[in-house]
Each structure stands twice: as C-alpha cells, then as structure tokens.
Automatic annotation (TrEMBL):
<protein>
    <recommendedName>
        <fullName>arginine deiminase</fullName>
        <ecNumber>3.5.3.6</ecNumber>
    </recommendedName>
</protein>
<comment type="pathway">
    <text>Amino-acid degradation; L-arginine degradation via ADI pathway; carbamoyl phosphate from L-arginine: step 1/2.</text>
</comment>
<dbReference type="GO" id="GO:0016990">
    <property type="term" value="F:arginine deiminase activity"/>
</dbReference>
<dbReference type="GO" id="GO:0019546">
    <property type="term" value="P:L-arginine deiminase pathway"/>
</dbReference>
<keyword id="KW-0378">Hydrolase</keyword>
<dbReference type="Pfam" id="PF19420">
    <property type="entry name" value="DDAH_eukar"/>
</dbReference>
C-alpha cells in the first residue's frame, strides 16, 4: 500500500506521522559536539537528559497517538545517534515530501526513514540543491500560506543555530508557485537559549483553525511579527514570555483542530487552550525539552484530513 501524502496545515485531523526515537541516543555529547545552546547549557551543568527518561517520554507521546488511532512510523535505530527530532529531516507540503538539507551533524537521520519514503510515489519526493539549507522545524503550512523561519544576517554561516537560508525560501517558492510563501527573520544565539529561536516552531505555531501561540521577541523584525498579528488578529494570538519560549511552549503538537498534545507544566498555556475549548492531552516531556526541541519537533506528519 502506498502512502497518500496530504498535509495543508498544522492542525487538521492527523492520520499518519513519523515519531522520532530516543533509543540508542548515545552518550552525553561533549561541549564541542553540541549544536544548540540549550543542550550546551545542560552538558555544562551536568543535567543532560538520560536515554531511559527520554524513551519513557516518547512512549507517553506514542500512547496518545494510539488513543487517537493515528498510524505511527518510527525511524530505524542507528547506534548511539540522536534521532528524536524527526521534524527537521523532511516535511510534507500537499502531496509532496521534501527532503531537508539538514545540518551535517544530523545527516544520518533521514536514511533511517528510507523504508517510509519507499511507500511514497517517487514523483512526489523532492530533493533540494546543495546550496539550499532548510529544516522542517522552520516550515509551517497555513492553507494557502507556507511560513518559513530563516536568518537574514550576513553572518549566517557563523551560526550553527541558523538552519534555513534564503536559498531555502526561494526553493520552496519555485517548487510551490501556488502558495504564498512568507519568510520570517528569527533571532539566533549560539550561547543563550533564551535568545535563540532555533526554528520557527520555537517561537510560533498555529493552533485550531484561527489561533496561534507566539513569542514576539523571537522575530528580528517587528514587521514579521506584525504580519502574523494582521493575519490571525491580535486577540487570537497567545503571547508567551521569554522563559515560556525557553521552555518551548510554542512547540506543542496538534492532532486535530480541537485536540492538542502539550507538556504538563505549561499551566498558563494549557488553561488558555482549555478556555478556548481545546482538549489538552498533557504528557511529560521536560527531559527532551533540555535538547531545545519538544513535541512538534519530534513529529513529521504525513497525512492529515
Ligand atoms: N524543530 C526543532 O526546533 N527541532 C529541535 C532540534 C533540536 C536539536 N538539538 C538541534 O539543534 O537540531
């Protein structure tokens, strides 16, 4: 049976997804090996998460998918390799699977889902030229729109936390001429996770059919933030603070327009969601959060209604 890919937004009823794995995550990385500032912070502090705890957290996530009868694919396990954040290794737009051109430190992750790609019509798989950098955490669908996080600074190449370049934005425009592609210039830091929007989903994400979660200071340009305010309406955006951004509140995950998986410590956000008639499936994900990724980052949706 071939997979009939279909993703047009972030929140329609989910039918099939790739969920990353924390199995054989490997030993705690060295300072030199870290490729995001939050992992770095925990490596230095001696609080880097343990595999056994992260595996348990991902099982909790998997159980929510089972409850909602979502078909779940897992990557083949590579020995001692981090494969938690499947989101970034590729993404689906409409019926096309776009292979990401990811950070070289992470380039073994994509071949581990080859068995999934083999169930997709090869005409629907897109590869980008080598000058294109793009990761799935920066790509977000909103009906006619594709939102893309990028970094426009001339020092782009110095930032290991800048993962999507303007060539990546142009590539998506060329491949999807019928979409309105809007890029967002994100703040980046190599050393302070509170001032680093690693991907767009670390400072913004739509929920439901008309709402969104946003961290204003994640955007280098106020006009980019204003674009989303105009599109969604200010009253529909839940604004998070610096510490909430650091804890990754914008990185929850939607199973349906009224069902959201969230971290149980996100009290203020979860209350807002419930008061707006969302069903909030609360799970524990605080250990994985130490690696500067959360629930959206751990998933790669293949089919939504
Ligand atoms: N979409 C995301 O924000 N993914 C999180 C990736 C975290 C991982 N430590 C990285 O730096 O690539």
């Amino acid at each position: 049976m071939m997979l009939k890919l279909n993703v047009n937004d972030e929140t329609s009823r989910l039918r099939a997804v790739v969920l990353g794995t924390a199995q054989s995550n490997g030993p705690t990385p060295t300072i030199e090996e870290a490729y995001d500032p939050k992992s770095l912070e925990h490596i230095i502090a001696g609080t880097y998460p343990l595999e056994i705890d992260m595996v348990a957290e991902m099982e909790g996530f998997h159980n929510v998918f089972k409850k909602y009868n979502v078909e779940v694919f897992r990557p083949e396990v590579i020995k001692d390799y981090n494969q938690i954040f499947t989101r970034d290794i590729g993404f689906v737009i409409d019926d096309k699977f776009v292979k990401a051109n990811i950070l070289p430190d992470r380039d073994r992750e994509l071949p581990a889902i080859d068995y999934v790609l083999q169930q997709i019509n090869p005409h629907n798989i897109i590869s980008a030229p080598v000058n294109v950098h793009i990761e799935g955490g920066d790509v977000m669908l909103w009906n006619d729109h594709v939102f893309i996080g990028t970094y426009k600074g001339s020092d782009y190449k110095d930032y290991i936390t800048a993962r999507t370049n303007m060539e990546g934005v142009e590539f998506i425009k060329e491949m999807f001429p019928n979409k309105i592609v809007k890029e967002f210039d994100l703040v980046k830091s190599k050393i302070e996770p509170r001032d680093n929007a690693l991907h767009l989903d670390c400072c913004f994400q739509p929920v439901g059919s008309s709402k969104g979660i946003i961290y204003k200071s994640g955007f280098r340009e106020e006009s980019d933030y204003m674009y989303l305010v105009k599109l969604f309406g200010k009253e529909n955006l839940f604004h998070i603070e610096r510490e909430e951004m650091y804890n990754m509140n914008s990185n929850i995950f939607s199973i349906d327009t009224n069902v959201v998986v969230s971290e149980r410590s996100f009290k203020r956000l979860n209350n807002w969601l419930r008061s707006n008639d969302f069903v909030v499936e609360e799970i524990s994900y605080k250990e994985i959060a130490k690696q500067e990724g959360l629930l959206r980052c751990s998933t790669l949706p293949l089919i939504r209604d």
